[in-house]
UniProtKB/TrEMBL annotation:
Its cofactor is FMN; Mg(2+). In the N-terminal section; belongs to the HFCD (homo-oligomeric flavin containing Cys decarboxylase) superfamily. In the C-terminal section; belongs to the PPC synthetase family. The keyword Ligase applies. The chain holds residues 181 to 413 of 413 of the full protein. Residues 15-233 are annotated as: Phosphopantothenate--cysteine ligase. Its EC number is 4.1.1.36, 6.3.2.5. It comes from the Bacteria. Keywords: Decarboxylase, Flavoprotein, FMN, Ligase, Lyase, Magnesium, Metal-binding, Multifunctional enzyme. Binds 1 FMN per subunit. The keyword Signal does not apply. CTP binds at residues 104, 114, 131-134, 154, 172, 176. This is Coenzyme A biosynthesis bifunctional protein CoaBC. Pathway: Cofactor biosynthesis; coenzyme A biosynthesis; CoA from (R)-pantothenate: step 2/5; Cofactor biosynthesis; coenzyme A biosynthesis; CoA from (R)-pantothenate: step 3/5. The lineage of its organism: Bacteria, Bacillati, Actinomycetota, Actinomycetes, Pseudonocardiales.
Length: 233
């Protein structure tokens, strides 16, 4: 594209974007992970730089992606690492976008040495809940500990017997308390490891906007278009 054709509507803003999937170790060589590519978070960071923001990209595991020139990169492993990095970067930020796929659980025990197989069946893997980074950010803002005027969450949803994609997403927006929720409809090969992405932008004020199937960089522009009016002068 033509960078000079982009609006400079994030000039002087400090933005934090998380990306990729956390990895939760079982032992020094094994982990529980997920299939997040990091593409959407990287696209958001790149677009924010192009629109004038000072960007911190907090990246967990991703596929090989071109670096985001002009952004500060902080790489992390686990959800707990990501929580610390995001929290630190969020202190003076105007906007925090949680595009990362954060593991909900981690193995309760992390073996110091590589786990060996024996003649008997293996023990089950015990799991412990990870902190909810997004919900904690909303709480920290309410407590006056961070600025972050705008907090954006992501949700990858499928419909199930309890409700359709949008019903799940509306409930998640309420539960999380963020200002904007980017909803991806997943299943049937959508969103994960593919170039295109489709869904909705749900705002805390109740407004809802469908986002047409488009590239992740186009989707990033749509997301920033929705965020900018929420930032106060
Ligand atoms: N998230 C987070 N910390 C976690 C889990 C999720 O900050 N421990 C963030 C994600 O980065 C995303 C949003 O919360 O922006 C929603 O993640 P999602 O997995 O869809 O929500 P959950 O509350 O974990 O619900 P679910 O049971 O559907 O996984
Ligand atoms: Ca989750």
């Amino acid at each position: 594209g033509r960078p000079d054709a982009l609006p400079r509507d994030l000039d002087g803003r400090r933005v934090v974007v998380s990306a990729g999937g956390t990895r939760e170790p079982l032992d020094p060589v094994r982990y529980l992970g997920n299939r997040s590519s990091g593409k959407q978070g990287y696209a958001l960071a790149r677009t924010a730089v192009q629109r004038g923001a000072q960007v911190t990209l907090v990246a967990a595991a991703t596929i090989a992606l071109p670096e985001v020139a002009g952004a500060e990169l902080v790489t992390v492993g686990t959800a707990q690492d990501m929580r610390a990095a995001v929290r630190q970067a969020a202190v003076g930020a105007d906007v925090v976008v949680m595009a990362a796929a954060v593991a909900d659980f981690r193995p309760t025990d992390r073996a110091e040495y590589k786990i060996k197989k024996t003649d008997r069946e293996p023990d089950p893997i015990g799991l412990t809940r990870n902190p909810d980074i997004l919900a904690e950010l909303v709480q920290a803002r309410a407590d006056g500990q961070i600025g972050a005027q705008v907090i954006v969450g992501f949700a990858a949803e499928t419909g199930d017997s309890a409700g359709d994609v949008l019903e799940h997403a509306r409930a998640k927006l309420k539960r999380k308390g963020c200002d904007l929720l980017v909803v991806n409809a997943v299943g049937e090969g959508k969103a994960f490891e593919v170039e295109d992405n489709s869904g909705w932008l749900l705002s805390a004020d109740g407004s809802e906007r469908a986002v047409a199937l488009s590239s992740k960089s186009h989707m990033a522009s749509d997301i920033w278009d929705a965020v900018v009016p929420l930032i106060q002068a």
